[in-house]
Specification:
single chain, alpha/beta, two-stranded antiparallel sheet, 4 helices, globular, disordered C terminus
């Protein structure tokens, strides 16, 4: 059964009611590298104009991506402790990051909060660099409001299914 956010347009194709884009694992690795390099001096961090993370938001990476101006949601693979991948779902307009994890019994909430911190810290910088807030008519961005914290919601467990073919 498909989630309620999907609808069948016809039997041959799916249409999506959400406007979304997907980034690859290289986005996460670049975000995490920025966090590691600037963690102690995060309040002084400035995203360079030619940074590859800005290319992702502008729809240039990976190839055939969609600009973040044109979507509501960005799906981000997130690596936890270099051993497990979870799905980050970034709701751009609401400034919320949700995490879906198939191993919630192993990964507790605190561990996942630490894992998504690089994303939560970088998103405002990326969105400010592409003038996302101005594009969507948010007038508060001019006074540094873009640095406001994002809510991080980690409530979702994905059940892992094993498929047996008989």
């Amino acid at each position: 059964m498909l989630p309620s956010s999907f609808s069948m347009a016809n039997r041959k194709s799916l249409s999506f009611s959400q406007r979304f884009t997907i980034v690859d694992t290289m986005f996460w690795q670049n975000a995490q590298a920025r966090w590691i390099k600037h963690d102690k001096k995060w309040n002084q961090f400035k995203l360079p104009e030619n940074d590859i993370l800005i290319d992702y938001a502008n729809g240039l990476q990976p190839l055939y991506s969609v600009k973040w101006h044109d979507v509501d949601i960005v799906y981000v693979p997130i690596n936890v402790r270099a051993s497990h991948w979870v799905l980050g779902v970034v709701h751009l307009h609401q400034r919320i990051i949700c995490v879906y994890d198939s191993l919630m019994g192993i990964n507790n909430n605190a561990r996942l909060q630490v894992a998504i911190k690089p994303l939560a810290k970088l998103l405002p910088h990326i969105l400010n660099a592409i003038t996302y807030y101005e594009f969507h008519g948010d007038t508060k961005c001019s006074n540094g409001w873009f640095r406001e914290k994002w809510r991080k919601v980690i409530l979702y467990e994905i059940l892992a299914y094993v498929m047996n073919s008989c």
